[in-house]
Amino acid sequence: MKLTMKVNGREVTGEVEGRTLLVDFLRSDLRLTGTHVGCDTSQCGACTVHVNGELVKSCTMFAAEADGAEIATIEGAAAEDGTLSAIQQAFQDHHGLQCGYCTPGMVMTAASLLKENPKPTEHEVRQYLEGNICRCTGYHNIVKAIMAASGQEMPAMAAE
Ligand code: FES
Ligand code: FES
């Protein structure tokens, strides 16, 4: 089937089979390989994107279901001139990544959290990240980066 969607502000068209997953359409057809596949059980969150402003694990959705939708992926996070978003910059500044495999999903999830809740507590950040796994287990600095992106510091005790 043919489909049309807006990805990072640009209209794209494609031809997919009914069984094609959104993550495969993004990665293979559109070559937007920043959206990762880290599991086959819908648990890791490496494939997280925004669909019509909602957080979605793109391995859990058929591309056909996103026909007509507005999609945001990690490739759209930075400005056109390459300037990182505040969240990306905070990940860099606070060493919120190690191998980086989980990072696109973490950044997309953090963006959604801060849109819903601009000043989350550390506990709220940790709860919101429940669906995202970092296999390098760098959660402490990921949380620290998200707190920093919200203009807050980690409480001193937790930061040690
Ligand atoms: S690849 Fe989608 S949740 Fe792991
Ligand atoms: S930084 Fe390696 S999986 Fe998270």
Q: How would you describe the overall organization of this protein?
A:
With 160 residues, this protein is of the alpha+beta class. It folds into two domains: 75 residues, Ubiquitin-like (UB roll); 65 residues, DNA polymerase, domain 1 (Orthogonal Bundle), CATH 1.10.150. It is 32% helix and 14% strand. It is built from six helices and five strands, in the order E-E-H-E-E-E-H-H-H-H-H. It has a five-stranded mixed sheet, sandwiched between helices. A hairpin with a 2-residue loop joins strand 1 and strand 2. It is globular and about 55 Å long. It starts with a strand and ends with a helix. The mean pLDDT is 96. It binds FE2/S2 (inorganic) cluster (2 copies). One FE2/S2 (inorganic) cluster binds next to loops. The site of one FE2/S2 (inorganic) cluster has 11 residues, from loops.
